[in-house]
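ok so i was messing around last nite and threw this chain in just to see what happens. nothing serious, just curious
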Amino acid sequence: MLSTAPIRAYLPASDVARARQFYEKTVGLTPREVYGEGVIYECGGVQVFLYLTPNAGTSKASQAYWQVQDVEAEVTELKRRGVKFEEYDIPGLTMKNSIGTGGGAKTAWFTDTEGNILAISQRI
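result:
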């Protein structure tokens, strides 16, 4: 049954070398395995597959998010590393210092080099 099988996230990239630089040097991920034309990362015990596709960056929705304990600290660190965060005007969401609060969470969104929208989020 799928409810007991591990699920893995995909991160599409039109330029895997460029995306690897972003994820490894800027975000700080460590590759676990090179697989085909892509690379597998492990985050909190879950695998993420960065893979080559011409369709990277075409989704207008978030691809994935990291659930963190302290979103303010993560945003500060990622900004220090050069990550630029998105600002959204969404009803019910209050934005302050690149962090949106609403719906029971504090969340910050950023876009990778491939145009994928990612987030870091803290439940409140």
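not much to say yet. The mean pLDDT is 95.
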